[in-house]
Write a structure and sequence with these properties.
- This protein is mainly beta.
- The longest helix has 20 residues, at 2-21.
- The termini are far apart.
- The chain has a 24-stranded antiparallel β-barrel. Strands 1, 2, 3, 4, 5, 6, 7, 8, 9, 10, 11, 12, 13 and 14 form a 14-stranded mixed sheet that branches.
- A hairpin with a 3-residue loop joins strand 27 (458-467) and strand 28 (471-480).
Length: 732
């Protein structure tokens, strides 16, 4: 009898595991009528729609069905995909940080749907909503492996409303089929959905996804089958003109500017699967500002792209090479230049175009061409910036890509040195992604060309990673010649051979307050071929962390570093400070802690102290982040970073502060006000950016933006401006 029950138990367990991993599917019914989008699923036609249900838990565990279930239904006609969702909850105490579109999902209540319209496991469209009917949309690229493959700055027109009831809420959407790209005659899309539920402290997905994988990975998806084949995917012509009036004052140079700009973008569909984007006199003004960063390294820091024109299909252009060490194309280089004093300034973009999308099921194409303006006063030439890329899918989710980049000065002026007239880069990349995303990797080879310089100039790299439930391992090798150069890329260091590896183990307790224990050993070694392959850097670190079921996180790290300075370096940034001498090696160690509180709470915080050596001295750092929420309209944030650097005489000591409070107020789903203050004594700047935004029509905005900057030490004005900007999205 005992053997009988044992066999029965094992059979049930096997059946349960098989059921969790089997392919799920549902049918999307074709209808002839249009539906009213009010968040109330009261039309009779919804009763005939099939459901995507039986959601699986992703957090706190990934081995059971979700406690609070979700039911998704879809219908479509020739023009629109309709979505009706019923989301069950414990109550109505929802966490909604703001009423502004394109919110991030973590730490609040919402549901998101992912559509892989080409069934390739590489790219997808994401649409989401929360109980208040606030919407978001995003693009998923490179299989959704990490946060860098998630782009919320993509915008498209669609409708959605939500309605709250006792114990559940419903949300109803109408997404024009023109919002998607797909093949004519397509009969199915790969599909998945994930949901955050703060009241039951549960995250769930329609398709079962292991916790060691990203929640928006495209490796685990079911199928939505259309009752009849889809017609042509024809995105309407979209015109997005803008007008911008700006009045500014440069107190440093005692210059005033009053300017009125007109320009805009156009989006044109080419066939079923290609987008042509045009821009004329684009406005990349101070409506959006970058976050200040304290940089205590010898190297440049990459900041994210915020300009809408460069966002769509950006992975076709920006994912070549190694993202940290050897990225040959970094779109933020375009429209930025250095004046005669070496300061970074804006270089006006005259216009440009981008053609991107699918040529067929397996081949993607990207072509970008941007022309910048000549600035003779600052000795900046007019440049044509071009990139051409092809990406061919191979095997289940891998791809092979080639590219050509050309930065060419037009009518090169006499002030431009001959060796800067052009820069060209060619390359080939192979990106590995296994069907279940347990194996990832890359191999690439790039070569640059400059005037009278075609020998060598290579950048090579290869990496391979394995990710399972209980461990992950990663190894990465990079080689960059001293002469390799990509004017449109982001290359932190040259003349290096770098080897990085990591090994991570995980424990998933079945009981108790901790959801996951994690330990990682990370090691980086760098050699300089130009210095007879001298080992100039290494960093060995051991990190342990505990993630709690109540969503707190505790982390501890200890690291040991070595840095050989080939050139002198002054790390404090103080004027007239004596730099650390060149041709000297420094050994130093560091310990650090981090605690992150539960982000679901109206008040949450993180604190991160660290202490240890810093070159030939010591460094103490403290970083804090606080968030106060008055749901759902007010969000107050306060970030602060303090670094105390103490080097022995005659070198410097410094207290470096970066303080940045932020206030966001969403009066309703159309009117937003935000103010960001950033104080950095390292940059000698106190900056204030205050922005009022009125979304008077879908994706059409009126901005009133005030910017003010002061010198920190003297507290005297540096620059000041006020912008009034109007954009309007018109579909034709």
């Amino acid at each position: 009898m005992a053997k009988y029950y044992t066999s029965l138990l094992l059979s049930l367990l096997f059946f349960s595991l098989s059921a969790q991993n089997q392919q799920k599917t549902f049918t999307v019914k074709l209808i002839s009528q249009e539906l009213k989008i009010d968040g109330i699923l009261d039309e009779d036609i919804w009763n005939s729609a099939e459901s995507a249900n039986d959601f699986h838990q992703y957090f706190p565990t990934d081995s059971v069905l979700a406690e609070q279930q979700t039911d998704i239904k879809m219908l479509y006609n020739n023009a629109t995909l309709y979505v009706g969702i019923k989301v069950k909850t414990e109550g109505n105490n929802y966490v909604i940080p703001s009423l502004r579109r394109d919110f991030r999902a973590g730490g609040n209540d919402n549901i998101s749907l992912l559509f892989d319209t080409f069934n390739d496991g590489t790219n997808a469209f994401l649409f989401g909503s929360n109980p208040y009917g606030v919407r978001r949309e995003a693009l998923i690229s490179n299989g959704g492996g990490d946060n860098g493959n998630f782009t919320t700055s993509w915008d498209v027109k669609w409708r959605g409303e939500s309605k709250m009831y006792d114990g559940y809420y419903t949300t109803e959407w109408a997404i024009p089929l023109t919002s998607f790209k797909f093949n004519e005659g397509e009969t199915k899309w790969r599909f998945n959905s994930y949901r955050f539920d703060t009241q039951s402290n549960e995250t769930s997905t329609w398709m079962h996804i292991p916790q060691n994988q990203s929640i928006f990975t495209l490796a685990f998806m079911g199928d939505m089958v259309f009752e009849k084949p889809l017609g042509k995917s024809r995105t309407p012509l979209a015109l997005i003109p803008y007008i911008n009036g700006i009045s500014s004052k440069d107190f440093e140079n005692n210059e005033s500017l009053n300017n009125f700009k007109v320009g805009g973008d156009a989006k044109i569909s080419i066939g079923n699967s290609l987008n042509l984007d045009l821009t004329l006199n684009p406005d990349f003004s101070t409506v959006e500002v970058d976050n200040f960063i304290t940089n205590l390294t010898r190297f440049e820091v990459a900041l994210p792209e915020r300009r809408q024109f460069f966002v769509d299909n950006n992975d076709l252009f920006g994912s070549f090479g190694g993202g940290r060490d050897a990225n040959p194309f970094f779109s933020r280089r375009i429209g930025i230049a250095r004046d005669t004093s070496g300061n970074t300034i804006e270089n006006r973009i005259i216009g440009g175009l981008r053609l991107s999308g699918k040529v067929n099921n397996n081949l993607r194409l990207g072509f970008l061409n941007i022309q910048t303006e000549k600035d003779e006063g600052n000795e900046i030439a007019s440049n044509n910036n071009m990139m051409f890329a092809l990406q061919q899918k191979v095997f289940s989710r891998s791809n092979l890509g080639i590219f050509f980049i050309n930065r060419q000065a037009i009518n090169a002026a006499s002030f431009l040195p001959e060796d800067e007239e052009y820069n060209r880069v060619v390359g080939i990349d192979y990106n590995l992604a296994s069907k279940d995303n347990s194996w990832i990797g890359k191999v690439y080879a790039h070569k640059s060309f400059q005037p009278n310089d075609s020998e060598g100039n290579y950048s090579f790299g290869a990496n391979l990673g394995k990710n399972t439930r209980y461990f992950s391992a990663f190894i990465d090798a990079v080689s960059i010649d001293e002469e390799f150069n990509s004017d449109l890329g982001f290359i932190r260091r040259k003349d290096i051979f770098k080897l990085t590896n990591s090994l991570e183990g995980r424990i998933w307790p079945e009981k108790g307050s901790v959801n996951r224990y994690q330990a990682q050993l990370f090691n980086t070694l760098t050699w300089r071929p130009g210095l007879d392959f001298r080992n100039t850097d290494y960093n060995v670190s051991l990190e342990t962390s505990a993630e709690f079921r109540t969503q707190e996180r505790l982390r501890a790290q200890v690291s040991k570093r070595f840095v050989y300075l080939a050139n002198e370096f002054e790390p404090t940034g103080k004027e007239n400070a004596i730099p650390l001498p060149a041709e000297t090696g420094y050994h130093f160690a560091n310990i650090g802690l981090e605690y992150q509180s539960d982000r679901r709470k109206n008040f949450s915080y993180a604190i991160e102290p660290s202490y240890g050596g810093f070159f030939n001295g010591n460094r103490y750092s403290l970083e804090t982040r606080f968030t106060f929420r008055f749901v759902p309209k007010v969000n107050i944030g306060f970030n602060a970073q303090y670094d105390h650097i103490e080097l022995p005489q005659p070198f410097s000591q410094a207290d470096i502060w970066l303080i940045s409070p932020r206030v966001n107020v969403t009066f309703n789903k159309s009117l937003f006000w935000s103010t960001l203050v950033q104080y950095s004594n390292q940059r000698d700047n106190l900056g204030i950016n205050s922005r009022l935004q009125w979304r008077f029509a879908p994706l059409s905005d009126l901005f009133l933006v005030y910017n003010d900057n002061y010198f920190v030490n003297s507290f005297t004005p540096r620059s000041r401006s006020i912008n009034l900007k109007l954009t309007y999205w018109l579909n034709i």
